[in-house]
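Notes continue from the previous slide.

Worked example: a multi-chain complex. Inputs as given:
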Amino acid sequence: MTLDVNTNSLISPSITCTSHVNCSGGAPTKLGILASGSGSNFEAVAQAIKNGQLNAQIQVLIYNNKNAYAAVRAANWDIPAVLLDHRDYKSRSDLDAEIARTLQKYNVEWVVMAGWMRIVTQVLIDAYTDKIINIHPSLLPSFKGAHAIEQALASGVKIAGCTVHIVRLEVDNGPILMQAAVPILPNDTTDTLHKRIQIEEHRILPAAISLAIVRAG
Ligand code: GRF
């Protein structure tokens, strides 16, 4: 690991396309992305595919908030976007059943939760066993849940970061694919720290997707 003085991030040895069989040919893996908000991680995945760093194609974006900027990004990339508003469903399982149906309709093989702020049920996990990936803004297993960055700042730790992992039923739990560390600076706020964490998220999410696909064979 080295310290990148421009971003104040600890960087692991560079992850290149050639280190991932996923880039060496074969049909692109069909991804479905779930996002609730800004969609900068969705954008990072789309950009990595365009740059040839990830052999995949995004079949569909599913979003649950009608004003999610992720939907605008999907339109800019000409990627179908489907709004499934959790408020329209009686239970989490009902929403997940509709998500699974939509993903299957678009022939999705792997699911990426890129800022998906909903708790996943067994219904979705069973539909895509070991093929759902999540990104979380902490070094798991520390600071699970929706306020990871605030918790890291309040705890006094000096190193924050992000984790990409395979999704299990328990929130922010499951086999870790990749992590990046981000030092906490003396005057950091939630916003400043989140911005630096996101730089790392955008770097490791596409690489971790590639790694997961390769590992699954
Ligand atoms: C990311 O920081 C992710 O770790 C967290 O939600 C945020 C989503 O950001 N789960 P964006 O919508 O991808 O910009």
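Summary box: The mean pLDDT is 92. The longest helix spans residues 190-216.
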